[in-house]
Structures are given as C-alpha cells and as structure tokens.
Design brief:
Distance between the termini: 30 Å
Oligomer: single chain
Largest sheet: none
Shape: globular
Length: 317
C-alpha cells in the first residue's frame, strides 16, 4: 500500500474514531442524575471487563511483548486518556453544555499538531500552519456562539466551572494522544486493537478504585436511574472505548503525529451532530460555517502531508 493510501486509510480510521467518541458527550445527558465519578467508574468498569474477556484467550502471547516500563506507560495513558479525561469531561458537559465542551476538546488537534511539528517526518510549519490556524478559528467561531447561547440559561459560576473542567480535559487528552502515539511506535509488534484492549484492562483496574466511593454516594438512586447508567456505561464502553479506541490506534500507526491531531476534529463534528439530534434542532449558520472550516482544515492538512508536497517545500530550501 502506498504512502498516500496509508494516509487516507488513516483518515478513515480517524473518522471512525470520531464517530464513536462523539457519543461520550451524550452519555451525561442520557444519565443526568449520575455523578461524574459514577459515570466514569461505570464506563471504565464495563470497558475493563469487556477488554479482559476479549484478551483472555491470547493473554500470554500479547503481554509477552510488555516489560515493566510498558505497563507503567499503560497506567499513565489509562489515567490521562480515560479516567481523568472523562471525569473532567462529564463535569464540563453538566455545567457548560455539550456545545461548549465539544468546542474546548476540539482544540486538541491544534495542541497535538503543534507538538508534532518537532517530529523529523513532520512537514514544515509553512505547510501545516495555515490548516492548524483554520481549525483554531473554526473552534473559536463555534465557541463564540455557544457561549453567547449558554450564558442566557446558565449561572455564570457554573459555566466557568464547566469551562475550567473542559480545559483540564483538553490538557489530559492532549497528553494522552501524544504519549499513546509514542508508545505505539515503540511497540510495533503489539497490534493496535490489542493495545486498546490492554489499556482497557488497566483502566478497569483504576475504575475499581472509583467504584466503591461512587456507589456509596449513589445509594439513593432509583432503579430507572441505575438502568440508564448501566445502558450508558455499556454503550459507551463498547462503541467509544472498544471500537473507537481500536480505530484511533490504527490511525496512530498510519499517520504522523502532526497530522494525527487533526483527526480529532471529527470527534468535535460528530459531538455537535449528536447534540443537534438530542436537542431536536439544526445547526445555525455560524455553526455550519465553522464545521465547513474544520473539514477544510483536515483535507488541507492531508494534502500538506503528501510526500510530493513535503519534497517540494524541502527543495525550495
């Protein structure tokens, strides 16, 4: 398969991951009475159980590739990309809304792409700078309208708390995206799906620590509330954690880091689409323009990473 074919396959995997991950923004709306700790514990306990079941027949052969350092890497990736990130995201959705939360997390492509410019195979800033700025402008445009709308219906303090947690989620997931790409490059013999499942097993272990205090805090919940939590946890665990992470890890293998960051734009687009369906409304003119800018930034970034484009810029210098 050619380099350009790999690029487009990686983009397809990035799109698939975004479609699955966008669902996590709806989970707090589907089970609004569950605390952030309970939502996180429920999702990742389900993820851990499913991952362990899928890995069980091949456990020895898969883990034979891991040393103590790799297990420590899995531990911090599980915290940064799952437990800590989701706790902050749930709080952000509760207090700032789906739109504002998706907006802030949508800045991950900018953070990751800028960090990826240090890689030796990254194209020059003159090529990827414009699409990165276009993505940032799109996120800012959506944010301007979203905040204007949320400010009319929410307490300012709650909105600020939600925004602060959204920024914390942004930092946590950016660290995960960068670290995960690095670790997968170090362990090429571990399959993308197996790495996702190993992350799930470790995350499930951390979720056990959260489960006890979270369950005690939720003793007053009704049967219907528990049922909604269970449905949300299992649905997000299967679709976002198992399927979405497998797509993402495959994209991590096929795309350079400076381009990989742009793929997270798809999560933002799908989060908005699901939010529109949940709220029973369509996008505004401003949101349509901003989403068009985001899509354009991804296509632009893909073209900037073509071998011919990189070689042409290097020849100029």
């Amino acid at each position: 398969m050619t380099g350009l074919s790999n690029r487009w396959l990686g983009v397809g995997c990035g799109l698939g991951a975004g479609a699955m991950w966008g669902l996590v923004f709806l989970a707090p709306k589907f089970a609004p009475d569950a605390s952030p700790m309970l939502m996180s514990a429920g999702r990742y306990l389900a993820y851990g159980v499913l991952a362990a079941a899928l890995l069980a027949p091949r456990w020895k052969s898969v883990t034979a590739e891991l040393d103590a350092k790799a297990w420590r890497g899995l531990a911090w990736l599980s915290l940064a990309g799952n437990i800590v990130y989701y706790l902050f995201l749930v709080v952000s959705v509760h207090f700032a809304g789906v739109a504002a939360s998706a907006l802030i997390v949508g800045m991950v492509p900018v953070v990751v792409a800028v960090w990826g410019l240090k890689d030796p195979d990254a194209p020059p800033l003159t090529k990827v700078g414009p699409p990165i700025l276009l993505a940032a402008a799109a996120v800012g445009l959506i944010g301007w309208e979203s905040m204007a709308r949320e400010a009319l219906t929410r307490d300012v303090g709650q909105v600020l708390l939600g925004l602060g947690c959204g920024l914390a989620a942004l930092a946590s997931w950016s660290a995960y995206a960068i670290g995960n790409s690095r670790w997968m490059a170090r362990l090429p013999r571990v399959g993308a799906n197996d790495w996702s499942l190993l992350t799930g097993v470790v995350t499930g272990g951390f979720a056990l620590v959260l489960a006890v205090p979270a369950a005690v805090d939720a003793m007053g919940q009704t049967g219907d509330q528990w049922a909604r939590l269970a449905a949300a946890s299992m649905g997000v665990a299967i679709l976002a954690s198992i399927v979405g992470n497998a797509f993402w890890n495959q994209a991590s293998r096929l795309l350079p880091l400076s381009m990989l960051g742009q793929m997270i734009v798809f999560e933002t687009l799908f989060a908005f689409a699901y939010g529109y369906l949940w709220e029973g409304r369509g996008p505004t003119v401003t949101e349509i323009v901003a989403m068009g800018m985001m899509i354009s930034s991804v296509i632009w970034c893909v073209r900037a990473h073509r071998p011919a484009a990189i070689a042409a810029v290097e020849a100029e210098h």
